Amino acid sequence: xxxxxxxxxxxxxxxxxxxxxxxxxxxxxxxxxxxxxxxxxxxxxxxxxxxxxxxxxxxxxxxxxxxxxxxxxxxxxxxxxxxxxxxxxxxxxxxxxxxxxxxxxxxxxxxxxxxxxxxxxxxxxxxxxxxxxxxxxxxxxxxxxxxxxxxxxxxxxxxxxxxxxxxxxxxxxxxxxxxxxxxxxxxxxxxxxxxxxxxxxxxxxxxxxxxxxxxxxxxxxxxxxxxxxxxxxxxxxxxxxxxxxxxxxxxxxxxxxxxxxxxxxxxxxxxxxxxxxxxxxxxxxxxxxxxxxxxxxxxxxxxxxxxxxxxxxxxxxxxxxxxxxxxxxxxxxxxxxxxxxxxxxxxxxxxxxxxxxxxxxxxxxxxxxxxxxxxxxxxxxxxxxxxxxxxxxxxxxxxxxxxxxxxxxxxxxxxxxxxxxxxxxxxxxxxxxxxxxxxxxxxx
Length: 444
Ligand SMILES: Cc1ncc(COP(=O)(O)O)c(C=O)c1O
Fold this sequence. Notes:
This protein is α/β, with parallel strands linked by helices. The chain has helices at residues 17-25, 51-58, 73-86, 97-108, 123-135, 148-157, 178-187, 200-203, 237-250, 256-267, 269-288, 307-313, 328-338, 368-373, 390-411; strands at residues 90-94, 114-118, 139-143, 162-166, 168-169, 174-175, 191-195, 213-217, 231-235, 293-297, 320-325, 354-356, 380-384.
């Protein structure tokens, strides 16, 4: 006898209270009208009709769900949505951006393989390449990916499995030319993997430009509110299938509730990225005209070194900008300490503006020489521009700049305050001799 209200066969056998309670509490509702939001499938296990079906689903002989680490409908819906926006055939969700990056690299790399990677990348990605994969016998050569001759030379120097780049990268908002890099990678038999975190698929779709896999921290712009951690890998069905298999074996599964939150962010991605980009370019233009600022980097500024590339590969300039105060470390510290609207925190891609001064926070253990080796100057600030009113941000920055200028003048002549040039984590990068030296910063 079917029970319309419960959606399961009504239990006519007399049973004890505990048994009835468990069965009653696990009955699914029948929903004749589809929900407008993807439900959160807060379940790890999925029931099959018989052992044959369970075995076939678990072994991927037929489509279906068996266990949460393998697949979950909410996570699958999120990954499919991002893949569609990225212009990719398939996608797979992860517990974090690093989970996605680790799985993408782990799928492609074996002991003895070589990677050519961008010299300016998220620090933990660099640490993963040199530390995690370095220990397993993978060598990484770091190059300036804006110098296509250098990339070509690095690829020609030895067989390479992966060329790795970021669409827009710290510290100076470097923009990679995916069309040229994908072409170089493929001509040398390498796969091209791109971290699209700073851009999001609204600004750039690396797969459409030739990348084999796109990886992304959905913790940032994709979800957009700094309240969920998630990652994504997208690419061809066959490659993403291999990434899924790697994930099943390593376990960085995305939680369905996190997938739901990240998916909610997708609906407003276009609106948010337009607003982030518009405010960021206006703020960057204003900053360029202010005394006490040496340099401003934003892809939409004509002064940006890769402005021409950015005009080709990005729909808009995005929400990330960087600028350099000429008062050095003291000016940078005074600037972020004086701001009242931006948050002093890690991360990026949120509704609120986030300003970071690496020399006094994540890279504080480095002196000016070591900072320079990491491509960072003492007065460098990074800004993830949020969705606040431009006028309020300008007023706040104006006030902080005045304080920073005074602090920089006061400290002039007496800098070099850092105790050590050694990165505090003591890791030894497994790079070859052509690599550009860059210490691993704090992983935020
Ligand atoms: C460019 C980039 N890629 C990957 C990551 C890692 O993402 P998650 O923190 O979600 O693991 C970050 C984190 O800041 C990032 O900035």
